[in-house]
Task: structure prediction
Amino acid sequence: MKAVVVRASGELDVVDAPEPAPGPDQVLVDIDAIGVGYVDVMARRGEYPYFPGAGSVPGLEVVGRVTSAGPDVPGASDGQRVLALPSFGGYAEKAVADADRVLPAPPGIDAADVVGLGVNALVAESVLDRAGAAPGERVLIRGAGGGIGVLATQIAAARGGEVTVVTSSAARGERLRALGAARVVDRTGSALPDETYDVIVDTVAGPDMGKHLELLRPNGRYVLCGAAGGAPGPESFEPLLSRFHTSPTLIAFSLNSVTPEDLRTSWARVLTMLEEGRLSPVLDRSFPLTEAEAALRLVESGKPFGKVVLNPR
Ligand SMILES: NC(=O)c1ccc[n+]([C@@H]2O[C@H](COP(=O)([O-])OP(=O)(O)OC[C@H]3O[C@@H](n4cnc5c(N)ncnc54)[C@H](OP(=O)(O)O)[C@@H]3O)[C@@H](O)[C@H]2O)c1
Result:
């Protein structure tokens, strides 16, 4: 099969690779669409500790059909259409994933659209649920035009929140208004948001995280779920202590530690919102698998609005 590997130099190579064999509790998926995420950028740079390194295949989310399963996977039916979250190995025509990281793909929706929800919708739904975002609360989304951000904006609005987005241009702001944002803050100006918030979803972190932590209202919840702007320094967390009297909550969230049950519950909520028309995938661009390099560079640029997808066919 065709697969894309990361070389020691960080370059990507398209190679002929043996088809992976599922372990006892895994399934093999014949892939129709592959999600490209910022984690893949970090993996290729050697900045993601769980990526096995040179010679390995990146890619943490694929949509396709189950073609075989290990003996310990009950009820895996041949041809079942799924969203699978492999522990890397997704930039290929086939990949294996643990059966408890495989979710049903809804019928009648393109594979690219399902992967456009994928990991990003699971993160966005889970963080707003963990933060307990309630109707009428003010919610701020950082990195709103990104893969997670466009979905978090919609889900926060669907939960009845009054949503403010931080983004990098007026044009992105207009697109985010169409997805449910009530207010737009352009981060290319010097101004920070001038309100305070009950919930802040941060996919960016970086040097400005502390300034955003200061925007929490009393009893507010700050969810840190990404670092597209770089790792936050220890000083970023100082407002938690200096604003102790306001009872702030910091929630750090990674999909890696979500239980299989919580993963299924979150995905079921995502699909319900999709069916009800309160959530839709936002795709930026699709590339053939052989152009994975260009796809990864686009994600690295921070310019996509929504999701970048690879097509293995
Ligand atoms: N917690 C988890 O389980 C989990 C799962 C998947 C990914 N992640 C992480 O979440 C983060 C976002 O992922 P993503 O797929 O949404 O990435 P993405 O599509 O690249 O979006 C990130 C967005 O952040 C904004 N941004 C980028 N650089 C910035 C900077 N220097 N300062 C301020 N804003 C900046 C941009 O949005 P605007 O132009 O609109 O501001 C960009 O579109 C990544 O760090 C990724 O590794 C976490």
